[in-house]
Amino acid sequence: MRLDFFPSRRLTIYLGKLFIVRIVAVLAMLVLILQILDLLGESGKILGAPGNGEAQLWTYVSLRVPQLVARFLPYSVLLATLLTLVTLNQNSEVIAMKAAGLSAHQILAPLLLSALLIAGISFAFNEKVVTSTTATLSAWQKVEYGPLAIGEDTRTDIYIAQGSDILAAQLASGTGDDTILTGVTWYERDPTLMLSEQWRADEALWTGEGWLLRDPVRFRVATATQEQMPDTIVAQGVTPQEIAISRVNPDAQDLGQLSRSIDALQAAGLRTAELEAKWWHKISGPLSSMLMPLLGAIAAFGLARSGQLFVRAVIGMALGFTFFVVDNAALAIGNFGGYPPFLAAWAPFFLFALIGEAVLIRTEE
């Protein structure tokens, strides 16, 4: 039995290239199909906005594709693992490698190394591309695919209480004193917390004393009347800093930005368990690609002519998809405080790493 972790250089390159080519092919197929289906559902909304046409459809595709790539890359690695290992098994290449003295771990080593490379690329892609496109697409969808300066620092669904009153906005763009609110609603309530007045404006600017509503419309509940009002300052106690931390989308921020958001929320005394779990998952998520060769390894071994190859492939697929289910469930439980953030993000990874290793050792080593 050879003691080297990797097989020969030529065999390592052969298996690695075989695996990566299948990952790219499966991912391209999944993204193409899912993007077509998604575009069919969204094209009506996009083209329904005044002034939108074919260019906006392509803009939507450019913003949506990175999300699909990030979400379905681990699934593609799982399917590519099964395709690669089943093919090697059917062609008796696994038997040849084992006859040459290679262990199951040595056969899987090139696949694990390739998966680690894919995980690194996935992490960098998520940090540099997916976060920015997610922020832009979220903001664009919030204005119902209307005009939007692509690339702005934006936040959506602003909702802040000041005493008994409430400031709400569809969109906040810019930072600090340059923050601009879009789709603004200011709710004034009486001491019994019943709504007394509602102010609506397309835009609000920070003046240093409060938020200046541009051409607002006031609705009085008591008289059920609506009137146009001059520019008016409201929400004097709500600062741009509160706006910045009021709504944090972890998928639209990279690790550095999310760390600063968590620190700001903690300084304000707000709960951050969900965001902390998402922070850890930004690392553990891409690394899940490394689990797929281990979970799908059961498809590589055993005689193809025994008639159990299909069953082994199904078992490998079941293990992989079970991991994704448990991973999502752990994050959900962590969001409710059932798990610490670190455990919610990493427990499924380590659990299924042990399961995959146990199955491999039990059946092949």
From TrEMBL:
Subcellular location as annotated: Cell membrane
Record keywords: Cell membrane, Membrane, Transmembrane, Transmembrane helix
Transmembrane segments: 12-37, 68-86, 107-125, 283-303, 310-333, 339-361
Primary site of residence: membrane
Topology in the lipid bilayer: Multi-pass membrane protein
Pfam families documented for this protein: LptF_LptG
Keyword Lipid metabolism: no
Protein name in UniProt: LPS export ABC transporter permease LptG
Organism (species): Croceicoccus esteveae
